[in-house]
Specification:
The complex is a heterodimer of chains A (471) and B (193). Chain A is of the alpha+beta class and 471 residues long. Helix content of chain A is 32%, strand content 24%. Chain A has 14 helices and 17 strands. In chain A, helix 7 packs across helix 8. The termini of chain A are far apart. Chain B has a single domain, classed as MFS general substrate transporter like domains (Growth Hormone, Chain: A), CATH 1.20.1250. Chain B is 82% helix and 0% strand. Chain B is globular and about 50 Å long. Classes of the chains: A alpha+beta (471), B mainly alpha (193). Chains A and B meet through helix 1 and helix 7 of A and helix 5 of B.
Chain lengths: 471, 193
């Protein structure tokens, strides 16, 4: 019996000995490229952070800035750098219900913001589908989400205070230090530490959810003719089937339409969406490993979402999707995100190519969701060069060298299609795209990195995104 | 009951405890932002454990087995409630309950171990007791980690509750006073008491 226990322990030791499981190394949500960092420092006070910047400069250390570390391309850490963990710098500083403004420290999460503004009948304009991310992290990647009327996050940022590489705190807005506004926003932590942010809010509203099942080929027409022209549809998300039986054939669309006949106060109690995590997690685990699981997941989702059709939900509750069931901590493999933005006219052709490449390259695609972003090229590294449909693809892949090489090969092929479709891809994820592909998709890169050198000549703020594409 | 059944029931109990305990510590740490708050939760546990010991002590010799059952049932209740706690106050209350259960279990375990062994020849029995409970704990911890990776910590709480329930049932089963229906072979077990 003891021998059995000892062998079991040995098997576990071997199974968990991959470097993605090493607790003494730092990585991000991808668990790829774990490295040793100098130390992780909790951001607590302005004076402390100024001291840190000056100290790091004097000692020639690099700084990386981290929030929830959900980005997947090494944006939040660097070898031998000091990682500034901003999650402890998370106070809501003020809410002004009249002006619909909130001032919040960068380490606060969207959940903190929602809790602070919900009592005033206010809501966030643009954020990701999940509310677990920090504000600082979200504006550094210029996030977007289910809202189809308010553009990307940069639009709802009025100003922020930035701790620069020189150790100064400056106010950045469209009128003050305006050059830095579109650089640090969507700047992936390369221009300084964002301390606090003033966000423009909108009214909380009551929505009626409706889910429509359709053929994938009908989707883009449906979106352009039924969803976009109807101003009462405020949020939208769609899903494409990756199940064997309906692979890239079926899709369903979920719309959130304002219902003015209902009183907000009857529906605006904030709710957790993380119910039934265990069965969901189990099912998602089966989805990762078998075709049968993918079919089961799709059929259940269809059933579940169509069942939910006509559900009443407040805007704040609609903007806090469940996520716990997707968490994956097992060694040696992980779920890796990719996101492709495709202009509406090219969408149908691109999606079919995407489905084919995923099949040909034998990539394990767990789900695809579709969101919409309005054209918004304010940020220098803007992805929304036109009105775009965004395909968020969740892959499951081994973290081994061979497994990653295969992912890279598949993604490079997909990016070629993206480029041919005049689309773009999202930068917070793993640096599979080549330097050439990056430069092709983000023509603002030259200006972006030149300005990085102007504002931070010693390259104090450092991460792997800069190392890989900034050269 | 005899030593064999004590070992069985307590191995199941350690399986339940070992499965949840290390992960329960992580769970608790997440509830409080400071280590002091986390420390307080544990202090409450020890306070209740110590406080009830004086009251339990005189009843141990007569009701040791009963205490063991109540302890496992109490732990089962705590495990079932834990995933539903929504405030630190509740956590402290459960720590109080678990401290009490811990006192009952630890004290009756020692009394019963003494009862079922003879002075001068206790080594083998106690060694066997320690071996099986430790091994159970080892399996439990490995299984627990695996289960959280696949499911959630809440499921682990429920499984642990199930095992605590089983351990209580094991003790109750071997001690029910249904002597008339007992088979020949099992009479000796009852005679021990």
């Amino acid at each position: 019996m003891l021998l059995l226990l000892a062998s079991l322990a040995f098997v576990q030791y071997v199974r968990t000995s991959s470097s993605d499981q090493n607790p003494y190394l730092m990585t991000d949500y991808s668990r790829l490229h774990p490295v040793k960092v100098e130390r992780v420092l909790q951001g607590e006070a302005e004076a402390q952070l100024i001291g840190l910047v000056k100290d790091a400069k004097a000692k020639g250390l690099k700084l990386s800035i981290a929030g929830q570390r959900h980005s997947q391309g090494g944006h939040t850490y660097y070898k031998d750098a000091v990682v500034v963990d901003m999650t402890s710098y998370n106070q809501v500083l003020s809410v002004d219900p009249e002006a619909k403004r909130i001032v919040v420290q960068a380490g606060a999460t969207w959940e903190d913001v929602q809790k602070a503004v919900n009592p005033y009948g206010l809501s966030v304009k643009t954020m990701q589908s999940l509310n677990v991310f920090t504000i600082g992290g979200s504006i550094s990647i210029n996030a977007h989400g289910r809202d189809i009327r308010n553009g990307s996050l940069i639009k709802s940022v009025e100003s922020f205070r930035l701790l620069t590489a020189g150790g100064d705190i400056i106010q950045v807005s469209r009128t003050e230090n305006a050059e830095l506004f579109p650089l640090a926003l969507g700047g992936y932590g390369l221009f300084g530490i964002i301390l606090d942010v003033t966000l423009i809010l909108t009214e909380d509203e009551v929505y009626r959810e409706s889910t429509v099942l359709m053929n994938l080929e009908e989707y883009s027409d449906y979106f352009q003719n039924e969803v976009l022209p109807n101003p009462d549809i405020r949020l939208h998300i769609a899903r494409i089937s990756v199940a064997e039986d309906s692979y890239f054939k079926e899709a369903f669309s979920k719309n959130y339409t304002v219902d003015r006949s209902l009183k907000l106060s009857d529906h605006n109690k904030l709710k957790s969406n993380d119910n039934w995590v265990a069965p969901g997690k189990l099912l998602f685990n089966i989805n990762r490993s078998t075709d049968w699981g993918k079919n089961a997941q799709w059929n259940l989702q269809k059933h579940f979402f169509v069942e939910q059709s006509d559900k009443i939900v407040s805007r704040n509750n609609a903007m806090r999707a469940a996520s716990a069931f997707m968490e994956y901590s097992q060694p040696g493999a992980n779920d890796l995100l990719q996101e492709y933005f495709i202009p509406l006219p090219q969408f149908d052709a691109f999606v079919q190519r995407l489905g084919a490449i995923v099949k040909e390259e034998d990539m394990n695609l767990l789900n695809i969701t579709i969101r919409y972003v309005n054209k918004d090229d304010e940020a220098v590294l803007s992805y929304a060069k036109q009105d775009m449909l965004a395909l968020v693809c969740l892959f499951h892949a081994p973290l081994s060298k061979a497994g990653q090489q295969r992912m890279k090969q598949g993604v490079e092929r997909i990016i070629n299609e993206v480029i041919a479709s005049e689309g773009s891809y999202y930068l917070p994820y793993i640096a599979y795209p080549t330097l050439e592909q990056f430069r092709n998709v983000y023509p603002g890169y030259e200006y972006f990195f030149a300005k990085k050198k102007d504002y931070d000549p010693d390259e104090l703020f450092m991460n792997y995104f800069y190392e890989q594409y900034g050269g | 009951m005899n030593l064999k059944w004590l070992i069985r029931s307590q191995s199941i109990m350690t399986l339940a405890a070992g499965m949840i305990y290390p992960y329960y510590l992580l769970f608790l740490k997440n509830l409080g932002n400071s280590f002091s708050k986390y420390g307080l939760a544990f202090a409450v546990f020890t306070i209740s454990s110590a406080a009830v010991s004086h009251w339990l002590a005189p009843r141990l010799d007569k009701h040791g087995v009963c205490m063991m059952i109540v302890s496992s049932l109490g732990m089962m209740g705590a495990m079932l409630v834990f995933p539903w706690t929504s405030s630190y106050g509740w956590v402290l209350l459960l720590q109080l309950l678990m401290g009490t259960c811990n006192a009952m279990q630890r004290m009756s375990e020692r009394v019963l171990l003494a009862d079922y062994t003879e002075p001068g020849s206790r080594g083998a029995g106690i060694g066997s007791y320690h071996f099986w409970t430790s091994v159970a704990s080892g399996f439990a911890v490995i299984l627990g980690g695996f289960l959280i990776d696949w499911l959630t910590i809440n499921i682990l709480f429920y499984l642990s509750a199930l095992l605590y329930g089983t351990s209580a049932w094991t003790i109750w089963r071997t001690n029910r006073p249904a002597v008339p229906r007992a088979k020949e072979g099992s009479v000796s077990e009852h005679n021990v008491l």
